[in-house]
Design a protein that fits this description.
about 350 residues, UDP N-Acetylglucosamine Acyltransferase, domain 1, 2 domains, alpha/beta, 11-stranded parallel sheet
Length: about 350
């Protein structure tokens, strides 16, 4: 496949993001770039004041900016209230990964009674088991597998080597990155005198619309009821979502986080990287958990929460760690002293 080239006028781009254009409307843009590396054929943006120092020297053909920064820019300008959001919306125009060939590769395997929508793309060595339903414009990447009785909504894209187990429902306009696994068994076992007895996971996974799931992220199927991922959820790479978890609309979770089974996380929550969330608890809407936190109890009020020990020089950390081991004893002694202290009249 030949390299894809792009060409948009500033007038076209301004219309796409409802921007006020100051400069030459016919100036041609072929790519997006940072302020530092941009050329005359590139469009850049500024949203962080820390990058104002590059405005005087940038070679960008145009810059997306706010009205407040417009006077500091000598090149063409696209003025909007939120430059970062405008930039995000334009990235789709320059994304070559969206260009796929419609059709079924000869090496793909299609099971019995599958229903394929219009304009689907099923790439090399992909496998669809029996009774799979694909909506219009679905892309199934090379080496991906979709299990029996699963359905994929319109325009959803599975990148290479995605594994969808049986009985899984995925909505429209989702993106599943390489290596993610949807619907593996949850970690359910019962102890017995002879060892662990497997609890067969009889539920499924339901994923809403416009959900993005990062590379090598796993979402376990439910034990009896379904694991549920609501519309607009975004999951980073290497996340573990346990069985029967429920994630609310537009919640975002960063990499290496673990969510224990049967936990419910509300709408519009943000979970930082490497967070551990225990099972069978609830986080209400608009909860923000900072990275490396450990959440062991339900969170009943919106807001920002943190745990863990911040980085410190090793010498100081060792001293504090030693003192922490004596914290309970110190607290007990303090309570005794308070009881002995004279009471105010």
């Amino acid at each position: 496949m030949s390299k894809i080239t792009y060409c948009f006028t500033l007038a076209e781009l301004a219309q796409r993001i409802s921007a006020e254009l100051v400069g030459n409307p016919q100036h041609q843009i072929s790519a997006l770039a940072t302020l530092q590396t941009a050329t005359q054929k590139n469009l850049s943006f500024i949203s962080n004041p820390a990058y104002k120092k590059y405005l005087a020297s940038t070679q960008a053909g145009a810059v997306i900016c706010t009205q407040e920064l417009a006077d500091a820019i000598s090149t063409n300008k696209l003025i909007v209230p939120n430059p970062y959001l405008a930039f995000a919306r334009l990235t789709r125009l320059f994304d070559s990964s969206l260009q796929v060939e419609v059709g079924i590769h000869p090496s793909a395997v299609i099971g019995k009674n599958c229903e394929l929508g219009n304009g689907v793309s099923i790439q090399a060595n992909a496998v669809l088991a029996d009774n799979v339903t694909l909506g219009d414009g679905v892309v199934v990447g090379a080496g991906s597998f979709i299990g029996t009785d699963s359905s994929i909504g319109a325009r959803t894209r599975l990148l290479s080597n995605v594994s969808i187990y049986h009985g899984i429902s995925i909505g429209e306009d989702c993106i599943l990155h390489s290596g993610c696994v949807i619907g593996a068994d949850g970690f359910g076992f019962s102890p017995s005198p002879d060892g662990w007895v497997k609890i067969h996971q009889l539920g499924g996974v339901i994923i809403g619309n416009k959900v993005e799931i990062g590379a090598a992220t796993t979402i376990d199927r439910g034990a009896l009821d379904d694991t549920f991922i609501d519309d607009g959820v975004i999951l980073d790479n290497l996340i573990q979502i346990g069985h029967n978890v429920r994630l609310g609309k537009h919640t975002a979770i960063a990499a290496n986080t673990v969510v224990g089974g049967s936990t419910t996380i509300g709408d519009n929550c943000t979970i930082g990287g490497a967070v551990a969330i225990a099972g069978h608890i609830t986080l209400v809407d608009k909860v923000y958990i900072t990275g490396m936190s450990m959440v062991t109890n339900s969170v009943t009020e919106a807001g920002s929460y943190s745990s863990g020990v911040p980085l410190a020089p090793s010498k100081d950390w060792r001293k504090n760690a030693a003192r922490f081991r004596h914290l309970d004893n110190l607290a007990t002694r303090l309570i005794k002293l308070e009881r002995l202290a004279p009471k105010d009249e």
